[in-house]
Model the fold of this input.
Amino acid sequence: MKKKAKAIVARSEGDLAEVLGLERADGIEIAVRSALNTKVVQVIEKRGLTHAQVAALAGTSRTRITALLNRTFRPI
Done:
């Protein structure tokens, strides 16, 4: 019979980074990027902008903006 794996609890971004084998600073960077993304989404929603409008303002494609706002963007 297999033993059940013990759950690992990460209480902060730094703890999560450590569990994943990353540097603590990487966890903090992830948290900052996430907070920035959340703020950008809030501003876009508040202003009632479409993804196409944001893309035009940012000088990039609508597809890239959609990926960023849906948090599915993967940098090249």
